[in-house]
Amino acid sequence: MFINDLTFEEMKSYIEEIGEKKFRAQQLFTFFNKNKKWDLNSSSNLPKDLKSLPVREIKIFEEYHSKIDETVKFLFELNDGNLIEGVLLKYEHGYSQCISTQVGCRMGCSFCASTKGGRIRNLTPSEMAGQIYLVENKLGINISNIVLMGSGEPLDNYENVIKFFDIIHDENGKNLSNRSITISSCGIVPRIYDLEKLKKPINLAISLHSPFDEDRKKIMPITNRYSIEEVLAASKYYSEGTGTRITLEYTLIKDVNDREIDADELIRITKDIKVHVNLIPLNPIKEYNKGKTSPKGAKKFQNMLLKGGINATIRRELGSDISASCGQLRRKRLENENSKAN
Ligand code: SAH
């Protein structure tokens, strides 16, 4: 057990269990999650025996600043030496950070770099929160939006992700509103229903990428487990139960999912759901070198959706000079190390 992985409730129980004074729980929780510190020895108000509690640390390993916009990409080092990545994006209304939820991923989407080496392990709550705190500390900023869209499938690490939500939302810590959090998933249906039961207005984004099961199976193996119909039914249920709008992420791949029949079918299957479609230009990786839809093609696809009454935007390409897409940086780094070793 690492003390900073605990939610405030868990910390209170733990402190009671070890016979410490009640108020110590708040001191500890605040130390990690409000003061954003790791080294208990630097605390002036904790007693000695609490200072020796095991803490899980995470560090900034490298950072890359885009020269074309204000995007910053971070590689973080975990206490077992694993590397994960996150991206800080600057928008008009503030800073948004995209964080990883697993080391690697086991979902096997064909176009995604994060999954190529499989899943190494889940991230713990403090390792997710740490990605935020380190960047806030380093740049002296306040991150006002968090998206779980980095490496990993958050709903494949459900318990830790829920604890992370508790920690980041807690008024004794960062106190971030649930509406400022987005969880992105390839569509693990039972976990979407579990998430709805929490009745928190956390935004749900679903990586759809094709409206046809047969086509989606070719790029997203999870479709063999849960059909598009099941994923959308769960999403609708989530949207209605939490009062949130669903985002559908749709990476445009030339002649694979950017045809007129794709737009028509997408319009048909999302008719009765409150959705917003986020069209993402493909960021090609070497294992998946299918073409990128041209900007003109993307605009055309967007217009077809808009005409069909679907709200759709094209995601701006931020930080394209620093491999700012999912898992590409860590992978590059691992490949460099392998080639050095050979
Ligand atoms: N596992 C989660 C979150 C991580 S991926 C999910 O599936 O949603 C975040 C988003 O980036 C997903 O929509 C994913 O499909 C997309 N993505 C991954 N690799 C990409 C690439 N090379 N080009 C464009 N989008 C990509």
TrEMBL record:
Family: Belongs to the radical SAM superfamily. RlmN family.
MF term (GO), any: tRNA (adenine(37)-C2)-methyltransferase activity
Enzymatic class: transferase
Annotated keywords: 4Fe-4S, Cytoplasm, Disulfide bond, Iron, Iron-sulfur, Metal-binding, Methyltransferase, rRNA processing, S-adenosyl-L-methionine, Transferase, tRNA processing
Name of the gene this protein is made from: rlmN
Remarks, miscellaneous: Reaction proceeds by a ping-pong mechanism involving intermediate methylation of a conserved cysteine residue.
InterPro entries: Aldolase_TIM, Methyltransferase_A, RlmN_N, RNA_MTrfase_RlmN, rRNA_lsu_MTrfase_RlmN/Cfr, rSAM, rSAM_sf
GO CC terms, sorted: cytoplasm
Protein's job: Specifically methylates position 2 of adenine 2503 in 23S rRNA and position 2 of adenine 37 in tRNAs.
Entry cofactors: [4Fe-4S] cluster
Protein species of origin: Peptoniphilus duerdenii ATCC BAA-1640
NCBIfam families tied to this protein: rRNA_mod_RlmN (TIGR00048)
Catalytic reaction annotation: adenosine(37) in tRNA + 2 reduced [2Fe-2S]-[ferredoxin] + 2 S-adenosyl-L-methionine = 2-methyladenosine(37) in tRNA + 5'-deoxyadenosine + L-methionine + 2 oxidized [2Fe-2S]-[ferredoxin] + S-adenosyl-L-homocysteine; adenosine(2503) in 23S rRNA + 2 reduced [2Fe-2S]-[ferredoxin] + 2 S-adenosyl-L-methionine = 2-methyladenosine(2503) in 23S rRNA + 5'-deoxyadenosine + L-methionine + 2 oxidized [2Fe-2S]-[ferredoxin] + S-adenosyl-L-homocysteine
Cofactor note: Binds 1 [4Fe-4S] cluster. The cluster is coordinated with 3 cysteines and an exchangeable S-adenosyl-L-methionine.
UniProt cross-references to CDD domains, sorted A to Z: Radical_SAM
Coiled coil regions, renumbered to chain: none
Pfam families from the UniProt entry: Radical_SAM (PF04055), RlmN_N (PF21016)
Domain Radical SAM core: 91-321
Name of the protein in question: Probable dual-specificity RNA methyltransferase RlmN
Residue positions of the active site: 85 (proton acceptor), 326 (s-methylcysteine intermediate)
E.C. designation(s): 2.1.1.192
GO biological process: rRNA base methylation; tRNA methylation
Annotated residues for binding of [4Fe-4S] cluster: 105, 109, 112
